[in-house]
């Protein structure tokens, strides 16, 4: 029987890997034209009980350790005036509890672990019907089991629920400093080796190190859940003109420490925007033979570092359920969904609580109390 996965992200590829290990082949349809078609974004911190657990089940933990960065667990937390509230430096022999890994490296690890013809590149799904996928180029494909691993704007989700994502109120502009150690050593020293977080009144600057030497700089704003179009328009951010975007951001961060504004000024002309959306915590649906969801398609959470971790574990556990019931997909899907609903509802509630801290006027102090266990 045909197992069809839509989306070659971490969750979809973890599922394909587990199925392959258990002698069950699948086809993965991915809208990207190739594995090199676009950048995969910044870093992920994979947790021992979720993302790393999934990679152990997939037989990939040694490969993960080879590409992970233990130093990425370092953290610095500051207030907008430059006051350092918390600094955590990871010893070289520290356990890999939450190491950082480049998204591109993780995707390559997963892709290289399955047969090359598993992923059908350049297949963007327009919509799904019972038993049939319809692609944007007019093509179609049939399936016996369909797994939506296609993220926030899932084309598969409507087969199971009418619920749609809503805006959270977080809007981000991603910039970046290439080869920061060489081009701006003073900023590299300030940032450190891992995560650099600065919070003001419903604003943040977050910096992540990438393995290629790039420092990704995220300008985050927390407001009412406006649409993406209205938020960027009302803040008069001139998208399409990188120099003007940086100048406008420096205006919006007026009053912040000059060293922090220097981070924005040092960025190159790469500008990406994102307006975060979420699904209700604890979303469920009646189990339907022949279709299910994983990752953001199933439980899109407010950003708190759980999304990729839960997606990886979803994929691994669904794969194991299918391997345990290779001739009874409905039973496998029902068992998977029962466990997934309970597990991810708790993660979604935790993510929502963390988001409330990030979006508060006194976010820096709230995070300091959280990390200290107060």
Main features:
cytoplasm; globular; flavoprotein; FAD/NAD(P)-binding domain; five-stranded parallel β-sheet; 13 helices; 2 domains; 36% helix; D-Amino Acid Oxidase, Chain A, domain 2; 374 residues; 17 strands; monooxygenase; alpha/beta; monooxygenase activity; FAD-bd; seven-stranded mixed β-sheet
The H-and-E topology, N to C, reads as EHEEHHEEEHEEEEEEHHEEEHHHEEHHHH
Q: Give Rg in angstroms.
A: 21 Å
Q: N- to C-terminal separation?
A: 53 Å
Content-based structural category: alpha/beta
Q: Give the helix tally.
A: 13
Instruction: Catalogue the unreliable spans.
Output: none
For CATH, the homologous superfamily of the largest domain is named as FAD/NAD(P)-binding domain
CATH class of the largest domain: Alpha Beta
Helix content: 25-40%
Strand order of the largest sheet: 5-4-13-14-15-12-16
EC number: 1.14.13.-
Main location: cytoplasm
Subunit structure: Monomer.
GO molecular function, one term: FAD binding
Topology:
Elements: E1 3-6, H1 10-21, E2 27-29, E3 43-45, H2 51-57, H3 61-67, E4 75-79, E5 84-88, E6 100-102, H4 103-111, E7 119-120, E8 125-129, E9 132-135, E10 140-142, E11 145-148, E12 166-177, H5 180-183, H6 185-191, E13 195-199, E14 203-209, E15 215-222, H7 228-234, H8 242-252, H9 258-265, E16 272-278, E17 291-293, H10 296-299, H11 307-324, H12 329-358, H13 363-372
Parallel strand pairs: 1-2, 1-11, 2-7, 4-13, 11-17
Antiparallel strand pairs: 3-6, 4-5, 8-9, 9-10, 12-15, 12-16, 13-14, 14-15
């Amino acid at each position: 029987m045909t197992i069809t996965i839509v989306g070659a992200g971490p969750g979809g590829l973890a599922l394909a890997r587990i199925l392959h290990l258990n002698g069950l082949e699948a086809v993965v349809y991915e809208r990207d034209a190739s594995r090199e078609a676009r950048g995969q974004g910044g870093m992920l911190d994979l947790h021992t009980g979720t993302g790393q657990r999934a990679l152990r089940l997939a037989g990939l933990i040694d490969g993960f350790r080879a590409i992970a960065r233990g130093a990425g667990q370092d953290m610095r937390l500051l207030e907008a005036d430059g006051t350092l509230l918390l600094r955590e430096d990871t010893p070289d022999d520290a356990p890999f509890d939450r190491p950082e890994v480049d998204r591109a490296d993780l995707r390559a690890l997963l892709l290289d672990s399955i047969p090359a013809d598993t992923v059908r590149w350049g297949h963007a799904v327009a919509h799904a019907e019972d038993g049939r996928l319809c692609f944007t180029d007019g093509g179609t494909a049939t399936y016996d089991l369909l797994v939506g691993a296609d993220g926030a704007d899932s084309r598969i989700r409507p087969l199971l629920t009418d619920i749609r994502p809503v805006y959270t109120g977080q809007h981000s502009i991603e910039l970046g400093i290439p080869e920061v150690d060489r081009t701006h050593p003073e900023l590299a020293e300030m940032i450190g080796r891992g995560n650099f977080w600065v919070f003001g009144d419903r604003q943040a600057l977050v910096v992540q190190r990438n393995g290629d030497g790039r420092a990704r700089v995220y300008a985050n704003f927390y407001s009412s859940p406006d649409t993406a179009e209205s938020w960027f328009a009302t803040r008069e951010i001139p998208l399409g003109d990188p120099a003007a975007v940086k100048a406008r951001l420096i205006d919006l961060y007026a009053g912040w420490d000059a060293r922090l504004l220097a981070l924005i000024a040092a960025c190159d002309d790469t500008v990406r925007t994102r307006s975060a959306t979420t699904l209700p915590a604890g979303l469920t649906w009646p189990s339907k033979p022949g279709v299910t969801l994983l990752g953001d398609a199933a439980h899109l959470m407010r950003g708190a570092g759980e999304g990729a971790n839960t997606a990886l574990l979803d994929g691994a556990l669904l794969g194991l359920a299918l391997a345990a019931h290779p001739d009874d997909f409905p039973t496998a899907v029902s068992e998977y969904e029962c466990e997934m609903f309970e597990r991810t509802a708790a993660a979604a509630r935790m993510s929502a609580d963390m988001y409330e801290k990030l979006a508060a006027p006194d976010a820096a102090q709230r995070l300091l109390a959280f990390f200290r266990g107060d």
